[in-house]
């Protein structure tokens, strides 16, 4: 039986947490052959060289396409996009790729969508139709939506938004957020596991800190991260601090992490294995910062989120667990205090607007059923 070559593009540890269960579902699906393109932050040593984590999973075909360097500059992002489009185009041609699957709103996904669409391949977009201000996030996400031939969205809100953007209804399916697939099957760890992860006692619990750049100005990002870390220190709990992504401004956040407040007990990590991160999220008293995990995974984990700044503005949120606040030590401290009180009333594995933990199976089924023909590849806007 002929198998359809499906290439999943992953550029960061964050998107791989969602794409890993999708890769497993595709790999095990009859009629599909999995390829995994490893690019972006995965290939940068300062961010943990997480390509090896993807490769250790043992997928049938994996290959690397270098994009960015570690330079902190908007221009480097643009140059990286060009390298990604060129490299992926060649790789898709060499490997007989027929379907390209991308997720979210980063330049790695945009590179995959451009390379796929312009090469005449079918492009499938996960997590389209959402809103999040970010650096260029909205523009990139919606650009990918206009390039993609099939939209497998996480929420009904996203589905409706894509229709308003002129996408044909038959191209859109609501499947849920694949990042939840593993979380709903992950057990809450005990205190010994938590203290081993942190490398210190944590009898009263701990806080996860994950804050990414919004401004390309590293000085501004350093100040914002220092304020967040000071607020966490004021709470008196140990912290697990996760390095930012490689967007412009990241060096400022890293500098703040490397010179934390004197009264903050913390362990900083460049990356964590996905299962370790999920266990940490289930066990944490709260997550602080502006990571999408605070919006999507944390509510399902029953963990409250102090969502700092505008990065996730406009995104569909769980109204119970997500507490928004501006930058600043006092504002973050107040939001974190509320989050810590809230955690006591929450239980793990809660239902959320982002699905039921069966997204990967639905995605693989959609990829099997998809007919690659002129109707699919010749798009028409329906404004």
Q: Do you know the CATH architecture of the largest domain?
A: 3-Layer(aba) Sandwich
- What is the highest CATH level, the class of the largest domain? Alpha Beta
Q: How much of the sequence is in beta strands? A: 15-25%
* Number of beta strands: 13
Q: What would the principal axes of the Cα set say about the shape?
A: globular
Number of domains: 2
CATH fold-level assignment of the largest domain: Rossmann fold
Determine the number of helices (DSSP H or I, runs of at least 4 residues): 15
Low-confidence residue ranges:
none
The CATH superfamily of the largest domain turns out to be: Glycogen Phosphorylase B
User: SSE string, helix = H, strand = E?
Assistant: EHEHEHEHEHEHEHHEHEHEHEHEEHHH
CA radius of gyration:
20 Å
The main pleated sheet reads as:
7 strands, parallel
In spatial order, strands of the major sheet run 3-2-1-4-5-6-7
Secondary-structure content class: alpha/beta
Descriptive overview:
The protein has helices at residues 13-27, 51-56, 74-95, 107-118, 137-147, 156-164, 179-183, 191-198, 218-235, 250-258, 274-283, 297-301, 329-343, 359-369, 374-377; strands at 4-10, 32-39, 61-65, 99-103, 122-126, 150-153, 172-174, 207-210, 239-242, 266-269, 286-289, 304-308, 322-325. The chain has 383 residues and is an alpha/beta fold. The chain has two domains: 4-178 and 357-377, Glycogen Phosphorylase B (Rossmann fold); 183-343, Glycogen Phosphorylase B (Rossmann fold), CATH 3.40.50. Helix 10 links the parallel strand 9 (239-242) and strand 10 (266-269). It is globular, with a radius of gyration of 20 Å. The mean pLDDT is 95.
């Amino acid at each position: 039986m002929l198998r359809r070559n499906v290439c999943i593009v992953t550029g960061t540890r964050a998107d791989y947490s969602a794409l890993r269960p999708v890769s497993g579902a595709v790999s095990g699906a009859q009629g599909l052959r999995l390829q995994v393109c490893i690019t972006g932050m995965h290939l940068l040593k300062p961010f943990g060289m997480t390509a090896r984590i993807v490769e250790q999973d043992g997928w049938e075909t994996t290959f690397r396409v270098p994009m960015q360097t570690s330079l902190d500059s908007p221009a480097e992002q643009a140059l990286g996009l060009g390298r990604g489009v060129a490299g992926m185009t060649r790789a898709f041609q060499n490997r007989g790729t027929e379907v390209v699957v991308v997720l979210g709103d980063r330049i790695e996904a945009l590179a995959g969508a451009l390379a796929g669409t312009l090469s005449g391949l079918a492009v499938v977009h996960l997590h389209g139709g959402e809103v999040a201000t970010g650096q260029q996030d909205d523009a990139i996400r919606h650009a990918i939506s206009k390039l993609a031939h099939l939209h497998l969205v996480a929420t009904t809100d996203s589905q409706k938004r894509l229709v308003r953007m002129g996408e044909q209804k038959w191209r859109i399916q609501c499947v849920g957020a694949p990042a939840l697939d593993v979380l709903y099957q992950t057990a809450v760890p005990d205190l010994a596991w938590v203290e081993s992860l942190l490398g210190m006692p944590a009898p009263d619990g701990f806080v996860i800190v994950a804050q990414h750049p919004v401004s390309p100005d590293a000085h501004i990002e350093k100040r914002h991260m220092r304020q967040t870390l000071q607020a966490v220190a004021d709470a008196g709990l140990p912290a697990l601090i996760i390095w930012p992504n490689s967007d412009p401004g990241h060096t400022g956040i890293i500098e703040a992490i490397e010179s934390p407040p004197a009264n903050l007990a913390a362990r900083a990590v460049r990356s964590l294995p996905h299962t370790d991160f999920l266990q940490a999220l289930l066990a944490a008293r709260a997550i602080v910062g502006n990571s999408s995990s605070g919006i999507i995974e944390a509510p399902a984990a029953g963990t409250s989120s102090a969502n700092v700044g505008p990065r996730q503005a406009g995104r569909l949120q769980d109204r119970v667990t997500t507490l928004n606040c501006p930058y600043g030590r006092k504002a973050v401290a107040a939001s974190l205090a509320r989050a810590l009180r809230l955690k006591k009333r929450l239980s793990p594995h809660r239902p959320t607007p982002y699905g039921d933990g069966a997204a990967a199976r639905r995605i693989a089924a959609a990829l099997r059923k998809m007919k690659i023909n002129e109707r699919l590849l010749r798009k028409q806007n329906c404004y």
